[in-house]
Amino acid sequence: MTALWVEPALALLVGYLLGSIPFGLLLTRATGAGDLRAIGSGNIGATNVLRTGRKGLAAATLLLDAGKGAVAVWVGALIHPDAALLGGLAAFLGHIYPIWLLGRGGKGVATMLGVVAALAWQIALVFAAIWIVSVLVTRHSSVGGMVAAMSAPVAAAVLGRFDLAIMLLALALLVVWKHRANIERLLTGTEPKVGRGA
Which of 8, 53, 112, 175 has its C-alpha lying 20 to 30 A from 143's C-alpha? Predict the structure, then answer.
């Protein structure tokens, strides 16, 4: 008989390892765009990849970062039906605190979207729509990411998915925490807008 802790631990481990794959860094290096950590904000996410001028790479980073969150949820569910949330949570933590980069990861917005999409597509639609609208209105990727992340637990609660609302609130608060430097720049009016240099 398998010990009760083995399957949850395996879901956490696999999810973390998936989440910690730094796709933005790998793609920019593989295509000769340089070390992403020395460009713009130094972040490994899609917004900073966009600052290299490679829109295709930025789109690929966004999709891959979201994809690893979704895959982690699905793998967790395969390991045990009750381990889907653990897989998604671990992937999110792996993205923002990857062991390979000594904990200096991304801000988690795209990976959170992937996790949400695999858990509840209705909430993911709200997340994505608010993200896009917020960026279009404010021209600040950071604002769009934070507002979208905070919309997820609200949407979950409205839909009666209180099981998800608590976890999504924790993820959203971590997204905001990772954006604290952006918040400071927003308050001082120095936060770069989408389409402009860092």
Answer: 53
Per-residue pLDDT of 48-86, as tens digits, reads 888 887 889 999 999 999 999 999 999 999 999 889 999
171 φψ region: left (φ > 0), alpha (ψ -120 to 50), beta (else): alpha
Q: What is the pLDDT of residue 1?
A: 47
Instruction: Tell me the C-alpha distance between 42 and 79, whole Å.
Output: 35
CB atoms within 10 A of CB 19: 31
Domain assignment present for residue 105? The answer is yes
**Tokens found for residue 14:** 């696999």
Residue 142 domain boundaries: 6-188
Residue 76 lies in a domain: yes
Q: Does the model's pTM come out above 0.90?
A: yes
Q: Is 25 domain-assigned?
A: yes
DSSP string for 141-156: HHHHHHHHHHHHHHHH
Handedness of CA 108, 52, 99, 81 (dihedral sign): positive
CB neighbourhood size of 191 (10 A):
19
